[in-house]
Amino acid sequence: MPEGVVQFVPLILIFAVFYFLLIRPQQKKMKQHREMLAEIGRGDRIVTNGGIIGTVIKVMNENEIQVEIADGVRVLVVRSMVTSVLDKTESKSEAAKS
């Protein structure tokens, strides 16, 4: 092999290791988070980025949801600030199948 190619082999190996150990898992996690955000619906219990737990009352549009955090206390939350869904309600299509 030419000397120039041999010098780049370690760099290629390092990039491959970074891709499979860091970049690819992060992309999978981001994809799962996007899918979770898209599936948020009325009745779901969620946790926001700030640690507030509430129940989704209404999906306003693709960017905002209305969440009840206490009896009669409703706030608008940006959908991307939801970190997790605690309790998922059954969707209408799943309920019809049962």
Structure overview:
By secondary structure, the chain is an alpha+beta fold. The protein folds into two domains: 1-38; 41-98, SH3 type barrels, CATH 2.30.30. The chain is built from two helices and five strands, in the order αβββββα. It has helices at 3-38, 92-97; strands at residues 45-48, 53-59, 64-70, 73-78, 82-87. Strands 4-3-2-1-5 form a five-stranded antiparallel β-sheet, with helices on one face. Strand 1 (45-48) and strand 2 (53-59) form a beta hairpin. The radius of gyration is 21 Å and the shape is rod-shaped. 8% of the residues are buried. The mean pLDDT is 89.
How much of the residues is beta strand, in percent? 25-35%
Average predicted local confidence, pLDDT? 89
Helix content: 40-55%
Question: What count of helical segments does DSSP give?
Answer: 2
Q: Assign an overall shape.
A: rod-shaped
Radius of gyration: 21 Å
Termini distance? 64 Å
Instruction: Name the helix and strand elements from N-terminus to C-terminus, one letter apiece.
Output: HEEEEEH
Known CATH architecture of the largest domain: Roll
Biggest sheet strand order reads 4-3-2-1-5
Brief account:
This protein has 98 residues and is of the alpha+beta class. It is 43% helix and 31% strand.
